[in-house]
Amino acid sequence: MDASSSSSISSKRNVEFQPENPCYFGLPSRVRTSRTKDNPGKKFRLCPKSMNEGPKCKFWEWLEPETPDNEVSSGKDKKEQWNLTLKICTLENQISIYKMKMEQENLVVRQELEKIKWKLFTHKVLMIALFLLFVFKK
């Protein structure tokens, strides 16, 4: 849905500026309330120059509804939050375990590679020694 078709501008006496949320021009965004049938009372943020003549930055976004600090979440919400927290902790733990396993496997592979390099070096030295022995024996 197009932003311009889903919102309307509230009266000037009800304007709130948000310097911490600037528009694309770097100006404090303006908070307005929608008066449309589709989004009645829903707040949105836009560029303060959006209704002026001249350049417009087209900054516009819906605001998430605020939850009052004194509002107590339901037991279901707390249980869902706890379950999500538990899942996150479980996943983080699994990631740590996999990282540790990968580091251990990487160490084993590096040790095996060093053994192979050493064998290759000793074989090269032996081949050179045999070649020199064969050449100088004649």
TrEMBL record:
Ranges where the GRF-type domain occurs: 23-66
Name assigned to this protein: GRF-type domain-containing protein
InterPro entries found in the cross-reference section: Znf_GRF
GO MF, any single term: zinc ion binding
Sorted UniProt keywords: Metal-binding, Zinc, Zinc-finger
Native source organism of the sequence: Lactuca sativa
The keyword Zinc is annotated on this UniProt entry: yes
Lineage: Eukaryota, Viridiplantae, Streptophyta, Embryophyta, Tracheophyta
Bias (Low complexity) ranges: 1-11
Region (Disordered): 1-22
Signal peptide region: none
Record has Zinc-finger as a keyword: yes
